[in-house]
Specification:
The complex is a heterodimer. By secondary structure, chain A is α/β, with parallel strands linked by helices. Helices cover about 25% and strands about 30% of the residues of chain A. Chain A folds into 3 domains: about 190 residues, FAD/NAD(P)-binding domain; about 110 residues, 3-Layer(bba) Sandwich (FAD/NAD(P)-binding domain), CATH 3.50.50; about 80 residues, Enolase-like, domain 1 (2-Layer Sandwich), CATH 3.30.390. Chain A has a 5-stranded parallel β-sheet with strand order 3-2-1-7-20. In chain A, strand 5 and strand 6 form a beta hairpin. The two termini of chain A are about 40 Å apart. By secondary structure, chain B is an alpha+beta fold. A 5-stranded mixed β-sheet of chain B has the order 2-1-5-3-4. The chains are: A alpha/beta, B alpha+beta. Bound molecules: flavin-adenine dinucleotide and FE2/S2 (inorganic) cluster. Flavin-adenine dinucleotide binds next to helix 2, strand 2, helix 9 and strand 23 of chain A.
Chain lengths: ~425, ~110
């Protein structure tokens, strides 16, 4: 009994320093939560981008469209870090973690010591490997700087080739189509967003993009980019498609080299337990970079604002000696045209799907059941289905499929 | 710049200058006014930016869209004057708007 108590006292000692690596969604939340939970020691947060933590979701939506100015992207005002007494070190990356000495070495030559360390390093884009991949005119989208680079060439009439029909590719396609660009999407699989959503949702979004004038090429892997020094065409399935710009959105890879080099376990992400702790009692991880056990007991990596926020909160609880099990229901959204896709839960484990509503009305939902209990919902312009779905998932509720499918029964009376 | 007044559940009043075109939620977040979580950053996806609008101002606000209406249906302690603050865009006409933040957003 004594040991955990001592441990707790030790951890709440005021003179401690917590170092956060990565100044993104999870890092910013960790600062908020550490202070809200009463941590009074020092906090330093190091980010390799030149910006204070900002929201990425608008990057492929309103910020790309030009309807949201940069100042509105930031998660917190600058005064926040001052008032929270958080030393924000930007434009500098952490080179190496020395677990024995409990220090991190920065690229600016400094060394910082820590009592506890949070890895909130997120992900980086997966680069395409094919001939011509280094040509000018080929873009990626993860950061403010990426979008600013794309903006300069994002003009009506330009031919934009999007490689990858996932969330980011399709969100960019929607913005570009609205903006008057001539858009082609190349997707290697037989449907869009195949890794993330069920077939009815894929089919619906495929149709929505075609209706908006986007040329969608499924089962079509890009083989090469062609051009002298600047992109001129995309080669796919043996044919050349003329293009002025390409946007590659083929997924991301977790930033875990630091953890690996420090001999922390890594899978497709930094391995953490249900308290967001690594095997080193002084090191925690949160957000896109973690390989964690979800509420279904299966290890996975999530890329979402919800996961970044909730894991950062849980890492803060654990650091301050008040661990709580992370078992939040995942949620996510994507905006394309006038369509809001809202997802809760994890569909991958389902054994039955129920469609509620007619996709033709641009308002419908797909429920996923396992052993008759609701495990996930994908809702298009259908907020009550989404919100009731979330509640049903939390409760592990069993609902008769006929009731879910019957739009004459309001969602409220199903809850 | 329009001034928006935020009153928390204990009655503490805080005023902020919020640029036209921003949302009432952003006005709070960017001025460190507590009581609004805004997990989704204004995408109308989280319902953690719930506020009660001062009755005197209710009429002056643009009406709720379907999505907001439904999201609110499921927020805790909803009242007839409940709104999602990320869905209220600040305009010069809203100078002086008063909103109250709820006890909890979760
Ligand atoms: C274009 C786009 C659209 C998105 N849309 C949505 C959406 O609609 N809904 C949704 O839920 N999610 C969306 N996401 C995902 C969401 O933004 C991420 O899940 C979230 O940002 C993850 O937060 P994080 O803190 O884990 O990582 P990040 O926000 O990526 O922050 C990690 C930071 O750490 C830095 N870093 C890495 N290594 C080091 C180092 N060694 N030293 C210093 N700094 C380092 C990185 O450069 C980065 O700045 C979107 C993402 C993108 C890119
Ligand atoms: S901020 Fe998420 S719904 Fe308003």
């Amino acid at each position: 009994m004594l040991a955990p108590l001592l441990e707790m006292l030790f951890r709440t000692i005021m003179s401690q320093r917590i170092v956060i690596i990565g100044a993104g969604q999870a890092g910013a939340q960790a600062v908020t939560s550490l202070r809200a939970e009463g941590f009074a020691g020092a906090i330093a947060m190091i980010g390799d981008e030149p910006f204070a933590p900002y929201q990425r979701p608008p990057l492929s939506k309103a910020y790309l469209m030009g309807t949201l100015e940069r100042a509105r992207l930031f998660l917190k005002p600058e005064t926040f870090y001052r008032e929270a007494n958080c030393e924000l070190i930007l434009g500098v990356s952490v080179r190496v973690i020395d677990r024995k000495a409990r220090t991190v070495a920065l690229t600016d030559g400094r060394t910082l010591s820590y009592d506890m360390l949070l890895l909130a390093t997120g992900t980086r884009v997966r680069r395409i490997k094919c001939p011509g991949a280094d040509l000018a005119g080929i873009h990626y989208l993860r950061s403010i700087e990426d979008v600013d680079g794309l903006h300069a060439v994002f003009q009506p009439g330009k031919r934009l080739a999007i490689v990858g029909g996932g969330y980011i590719g399709l969100e960019v396609a929607a913005v570009a189509a609205k903006h008057g660009l001539d858009v082609m999407v190349f997707e290697a699989m037989d449907r869009v967003m195949a890794r993330a959503v069920s077939k009815p949702v894929s089919d619906f979004f495929e149709q929505a993009h075609r209706t908006a004038g986007v040329k969608l090429m499924l089962n079509t892997g890009v083989e090469a980019f062609e051009g002298a020094s600047h992109l001129e065409a995309v080669r796919a399935s043996g044919a050349a498609y003329p293009a002025d710009i390409a946007l590659v959105g083929i997924g991301v890879v977790p930033n875990m080299d630091l953890a690996k080099d420090a001999d922390l376990a890594c899978e497709d992400g930094i391995v953490v337990d249900q308290n967001c702790a690594t095997a080193d009692p002084a090191i925690f991880a949160a957000g896109d970079c973690t390989w964690h056990v979800g509420r279904e007991g299966v290890p996975l990596r999530l890329e979402s604002v919800q996961n970044a926020i909730d894991q950062a909160k849980h890492a803060a609880y654990a650091m301050l000696g008040k661990p709580k099990i992370y078992s939040e229901v995942p949620w996510f959204w994507s905006d394309q045209y006038d369509l809001k896709l809202q997802i809760a839960g994890l569909a991958r484990s389902s054994d039955q799907i129920v469609v509620r509503g007619d996709p033709g009305t641009r308002k419908f939902a797909v429920f996923h059941l396992r052993d008759a209990a609701v495990v996930a919902v994908e809702a298009v312009n259908a907020a009550s289905e989404y919100l009731v779905g979330r509640k049903l998932i939390v409760a592990g509720a069993r609902v008769a499929p006929e009731r879910l499918a019957d739009v004459s029964i309001p969602m409220k009376s199903i809850a | 710049m329009p001034k928006i007044k935020y009153i928390d559940e204990k009655g503490t009043e805080r005023e902020a200058d919020v640029p036209t075109g921003w949302s009432v939620m952003e006005g709070a977040v960017k001025n460190l006014i507590p009581g609004i979580d805004a997990d989704c950053g204004g995408a109308c996806a989280c319902a953690t930016c719930h506020v009660y609008v001062d009755p005197a101002w209710l009429e002056k606000l643009p009406p709720k869209q379907d999505m907001e209406e439904t999201m609110l249906d499921f927020a805790p302690d909803v009242q007839p004057n409940s709104r999602l603050s990320c869905q209220i865009t600040v305009t010069p006409e809203l100078d002086g708007l008063v909103v109250r933040t709820p006890k909890t957003q979760h």
